[in-house]
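Re: beginner question about structure tokens

> Can someone show what the tokenized structure looks like for a real chain? I only ever see the sequence side.

Sure, here's an example I had lying around. Input first:
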Amino acid sequence: MEEVRQNNNIIPDSWLKYIFFYAVSIAFILGNAFLVLKKDTLMGVAIPVILMVLLTAFYVYDKLIWLVVLFTPVSVPLSQLAYNLPFDLHMPTEPLLLGILIVFLIAQAAGKRIDRNITKHPVAIVIYFYLAWMALTSVTSTLPVVSVKYWLTRVWFITVFVFLLAFLFNKQKNIEKFILFFTIAFVPIIFYTLLRHVKYGITNDNAAHWVMCPFFNDHTSYGAVLAMFIPILAGFAFGGWFEKKYRFWLIALLGLFIIAEVFSFSRAAWLSLFFSGGVWLLMKLKIKFKHLFFTLAALLLITFTFQQQILERLERNSQDSSSNLMDHFTSMTNITTDASNLERFNRWNCAIALFKEKPVLGWGPGTYAFNYAPYQLTRQRTIISTNSGDGGNAHSEYLGALAESGFIGSLSFVLIILVVLYTGIKAYSATDDKRLKTLLISSILGLTTYYFHGIFNNFLDTDKASVPFWGFTAIIVALDIYIKKANKEKNSLSGSS
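And the corresponding structure tokens:
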């Protein structure tokens, strides 16, 4: 019967795959020719690339994640490549992340689940609350399209760099891979920036504002990302994580990041590293988390109570931004003549005014830049203020969230920070493994640089800051789960004996 069936086939089975291959190829060539000749576009060329990315995501999605990590330092905004577009994306990272998110959702629907220890972790729970509230305020937004796009970008960053990375970080070698891929890919950007800075004058603080373009918008975001990696590179170099034969290269990499940080002329980044050093000292002194929390609350209360006296003291400082590093650092507290500081106060006051008008649901995620212009007071405007209010965001993660998603939106972000810090500090105290302690404290310190920096700027809408921010969060979650499992096994063994 089998022989008869084969003889009755008009087309042999072995030919079918060749016919399919040539049919698809001819269809692609004809379709692409139509797009080029009739529509004057090369978009059809992207189809094979998109298919390749999707296939990679389906079968080896972890390779695609590492590709995103490698591309992040060198990504550029789409607006730099094509003008007058109604939207903007960081290329090629955000399209890749969107592809990974789609595949992740398909895998979830097909029954492939991430470890429940990750999805039910306290950090995951506060993230769900954060994203859910942001989704609600996107629906009630003054600009729903802007807010939904903003929410989606936050979803794909968190999905990939918290949940999927925490799953991959079950293998600690993947943590090393994440850190080294990002930092090594960052090296060409540092050299590019420093060489351009030398060309225009290495002590020229004005040139420091734009020599990193188009890879970073300005020196503040550049400095913030450098600051996040300095503690973890220090941990790698001096914490015994790698063999001694690699120490020279790790120290050299750390030194390069420190030099780049100094010449970023980002005062907030410098201050964030001092703050991180203070956190390191407190952790080494083994001060309990609750004591830290109450101390911080007391400091905030004192600042609020004596705000007028503090402002009067700050107003006595007339040192403007300078090419002299010490003078430039001193200008950080000048709120009388320094245009950068004054503009930051202008944006903060606008954010507070926006919050007062819509305190519960806010104006919508990502909408601050479109709404703050009318709330600028004449006496608070500076030489760098614009009538149209197209100068950017709120210059604060906390006040930006307050204006865009109301009090609960800002609180949800603060809750993420508190739960991550509590988780990291508790895990640090729960293990005697020196290497794990090094990785935990380094990740905590890297995050605290941004937690502090977030008072003065907000960059989590960019891939450069989001990848390490959520990636370091995933490290803490993964190590917390690992340490809990190890301690549980240890206790069960000691109990049975």
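Each token stands for a local structural state, so reading them left to right follows the chain. The radius of gyration is 26 Å.
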